[in-house]
Amino acid sequence: MATTDSIRQLQNAIAEDYTEDQFAKLFDKIDNIYANRYESYAVGLCGYYSSDDAADKSQAQLRTEKLRVFRDEELRKFKLAQFQSAPVNITQSQSQEAQAAATSIIVGDLSNTYERIDEIPENELSDNDKLKLKGLLAELEQAKQKDASMRKRGIQKVLTFLADKGADAAIAAAPYIGAVAQQLF
């Protein structure tokens, strides 16, 4: 279960005005996943101003906020790793500045693409397929630093993968793929 999917489940529970019993079942499911994954995730969360751990909207909101922190932290780590692995070319300063500007735009698009991929429901695209798609897009990010033929092969790999994964996955990845394809022309 993706963190974004868990956040969405909690938000839906709040919007649908779950009963205390329904909240408790959802909390058990989510707490069991994240308490084992993150040391700082506490089962039976309480707010700073409240020691009330009743299964209700306030506890759902608290869990939502905590999961957003974990999701954002993982995304920052991924962006940092991606940035650190990018090759640096110190030749012509104007060319370098233009490339840096283009890279920052596409990196922004890539992080937005990752967020859109995470938002795809698990019944539409499994967590393994989400991870595979993100990996292919990361490879494409690296290929765009190379020659045009490598970019074309990277785009072909992503499109081949997306061919049988459904519209949601294609829609999530399309803006980024389009941005990389524009660099070919």
UniProtKB/TrEMBL annotation:
Keywords of this entry: Coiled coil
Coiled-coil annotated residue ranges, if any: 126-153
Name assigned to this protein: Uncharacterized protein
Organism, as annotated: Adlercreutzia caecimuris B7
